[in-house]
Design brief:
By secondary structure, this protein is mostly helical. The chain has one domain (16-373). 70% of the residues lie in helices and 3% in strands. The protein has twelve helices and three strands, in the order αααβββααααααααα. The protein has helices at residues 16-45, 50-70, 74-98, 118-141, 146-169, 174-191, 195-215, 217-227, 238-250, 275-307, 312-336, 354-373; strands at residues 100-102, 105-111, 114-116. A three-stranded antiparallel β-sheet has the order 1-2-3, with helices on one face. Strand 2 and strand 3 form a beta hairpin. It starts with 15 loop residues before the first helix and ends in a 5-residue tail after the last helix.
């Protein structure tokens, strides 16, 4: 099926509102990394500025990545998608062969002087590969023939999802498995496949996660602690309980930026997975709502970009990136508030880490690129 051409072939101005929200979140997140991490950095590295120095460097690299990626066209991203997806699978395989352990998990590899977490790349490559696939097979995937829908609208997309999910599963990276599964389902929904088949897929996904929980000791332990963290307050429930104490002690206005107590080695990973708890303690409900409001606005602008283009690849890529952002933020907040079991999910722009931050800027650059070429329907 011939792909629909956009009404504008020449780029116009990028979505300024989207760009502003990205910059504000990056600044907000960097400030919180320093505030939440300086005590832990001193205790572990004898350098209070350890985290902020590295995060600032990654921030500068990320801004360069944002600038460069926003100037490439959606057509360029479509061309490189199969190569990106294939390279990601190779990197995920290399983690199993030559990866090294960090924070108790084997999820990183060294490429020269760089340390890379391929599972972060896998999230974007899955979005782009599914967008690429549906842009090529859109007519067959949306066919009214049951055989075509089952094959092109469900079976093949599921296969595209399962390859990276299985490789990540071998790393015992439960949070990434959940995110990749959610991203894949969102992409299938956005493609327009018949809802009856999507409901079937959802049922399979729930059964798969349930099976993983029932037959994996690591997952069963997390669920047991989640149900009663008080019973494991000195072991698996420590981080959850300390995080909840941090949130509760912040009240409406917080204790003040830099004045938090729970980051003084009470909350583990205060500058990483649990940084939202420190934000709540220091800036209170007002600060938490401000951060979530910025995320909500960014996701809204991303979806707006998606709806303004008639190019299938660009539309699905923009939607997928926006959905991934929303999923990761919601899951991080759910973990910190003990709404779901602790699975170690980072908060975009806020959690300390180079791979995730640079990938986020790359994703935002792609969104800005799509916004330049978006077809604004009258």
């Amino acid at each position: 099926m011939r792909e629909i051409q956009t009404k504008r072939t020449a780029p116009h101005h990028a979505d300024v509102s989207l760009l502003i929200s990205v910059i504000l979140l990056a600044i907000f997140g960097t400030i919180m990394v320093f505030s939440a991490g300086y005590a832990y950095a001193y205790a572990r590295y004898d350098d209070s500025y350890y985290f902020i120095k590295k995060q600032s460097l990654w921030l500068l690299v990320g801004l360069v990545v944002l600038y460069l990626s926003s100037h490439a066209s959606p057509a360029f991203y479509k061309r490189i998608t199969p190569v990106l997806y294939g390279t990601t699978l190779v990197l995920l395989l290399l983690v199993l062969v030559m990866g090294f352990v960090g924070n108790g998990a084997k999820r990183w590899i060294s490429i020269g002087p760089l340390t890379v977490q391929p599972s972060e790349i896998a999230k974007l490559s899955l979005i782009m590969m599914m967008a690429y696939y549906f842009s090529k097979k859109e007519g067959l995937a949306l066919s009214k023939k049951r055989g075509d829908i089952l094959r092109y609208g469900t079976a093949i997309p599921i296969g595209i999802m399962l390859v990276p999910i299985i490789l990540v599963m071998l790393q015992k990276h439960l949070s990434c498995i959940i995110i990749l599964s959610a991203i894949g389902l969102c992409m299938i929904v956005a493609s327009g496949v018949n809802l009856r088949y999507i409901s079937f897929l959802s049922g399979l996904g729930v059964m798969g996660i349930s099976a993983l929980a029932l037959f994996t000791d690591y997952t069963k332990e997390r669920i047991t602690v989640w149900r009663d963290p008080e019973a494991y307050r000195l072991t698996g429930g420590w981080q959850t309980l300390q995080g909840l104490m941090a949130i509760g002690s912040g009240g409406i206005f917080g204790v003040g930026l830099g004045n938090g107590v729970m980051k003084q080695c009470y909350v583990s990973e205060p500058a990483n997975d649990m940084i939202f708890a420190i934000l709540c303690e220091e800036l209170g409900l007002i600060g938490a709502l401000a951060a979530l409001g910025l995320f909500a606005w960014l996701v809204y602008r991303g979806i707006t970009v998606a709806t303004r283009t008639t190019d299938t690849f660009a539309r699905l890529t923009a939607f997928g990136i926006s959905a991934k952002m929303a999923i990761q933020v919601l899951l991080n907040v759910a973990v910190v508030t003990n709404t779901i079991p602790n699975t170690g999910i980072s908060l975009p722009f806020f959690s300390y880490g180079g791979s995730s931050l640079i990938m986020i800027f790359f994703e935002m650059g792609i969104l800005l690129s799509i916004s330049k070429y978006a077809s604004i329907e009258k």
